[in-house]
Amino acid sequence: MTYEDILKELKSKHYRPIYYLMGEETYYIDLIAGFMEENLLSETEKEFNLTIMYGMDIDVAAIIHAAKRYPMMSEYQVVIVKEAQTVHNMEAFSYYLQKPMKSTILVICHKHGTLDKRKKLAADIEQNGVLFESKKLKDAQLPLFITSYLKNKNVEIDPKAALMLADFVGSELSRLTGELEKLMITLPVGQIRITPEQVEENTGISKDYNHFELRAALLEKDVWKANQIIKYFAETPKNNPVQVTLALLFGFFSNKAARSSKWL
């Protein structure tokens, strides 16, 4: 299931006994867990039926004990386990999944890693609920993510502006969405399109001297422009760390070499 599928089910009030959210990309894990924390129970129901636990403070037995409680004056109770990657011997949780409580919605957030899908626990979770892996987006997918995120908020973005942001922020989606939210706030009244000029003004990225323009200069074999951009990077190392530039150059010439080898 995708995170969109999960949210669609939740909004239609189709709940599963367990949601195991795992992976390297924390953004989608936080998005799903946050939606469940805020929306599955009324404010009154939350007082007695919302439990939030942290992996560093508990063990598997504590999770099972919380999950086996009955809700009070509510159809469901919601139990959210954050930082579950620190819980030892999680495989023992299969015991609870033999007969999970239908009145409990258990959400386990396992960040910066995944379960071994070959083991029994993963199979038990998939049989009873949702096993969701939140994967890091590839750099090439970031402009589409930016465009889609803004479209859902009725805002457009210039393709060059999207590439500038993707290059500058990278694949950390929580930080990227934060930058997008700030840009939307700075839009003049009545304007619904983010331009390269606005990105430059509000983020510190230069619309003329950035990784997108460097790539274009290399493709066009414009030595003068490429050198100007590199010179700008050297003068502004805080906004243009050399590690990012080296990674871009490595990727550019690796792809160029791979394409050339096909014709040999």
Automatic annotation (TrEMBL):
<dbReference type="GO" id="GO:0009360">
    <property type="term" value="C:DNA polymerase III complex"/>
</dbReference>
<keyword id="KW-0548">Nucleotidyltransferase</keyword>
<dbReference type="Pfam" id="PF06144">
    <property type="entry name" value="DNA_pol3_delta"/>
</dbReference>
<keyword id="KW-0239">DNA-directed DNA polymerase</keyword>
<dbReference type="InterPro" id="IPR027417">
    <property type="entry name" value="P-loop_NTPase"/>
</dbReference>
<dbReference type="InterPro" id="IPR005790">
    <property type="entry name" value="DNA_polIII_delta"/>
</dbReference>
<dbReference type="GO" id="GO:0003887">
    <property type="term" value="F:DNA-directed DNA polymerase activity"/>
</dbReference>
<dbReference type="GO" id="GO:0003677">
    <property type="term" value="F:DNA binding"/>
</dbReference>
<feature type="domain" description="DNA polymerase III delta N-terminal">
    <location>
        <begin position="19"/>
        <end position="133"/>
    </location>
</feature>
<dbReference type="GO" id="GO:0006261">
    <property type="term" value="P:DNA-templated DNA replication"/>
</dbReference>
<keyword id="KW-0235">DNA replication</keyword>
<dbReference type="InterPro" id="IPR010372">
    <property type="entry name" value="DNA_pol3_delta_N"/>
</dbReference>
<protein>
    <submittedName>
        <fullName>DNA polymerase III subunit delta</fullName>
    </submittedName>
</protein>
<keyword id="KW-0808">Transferase</keyword>
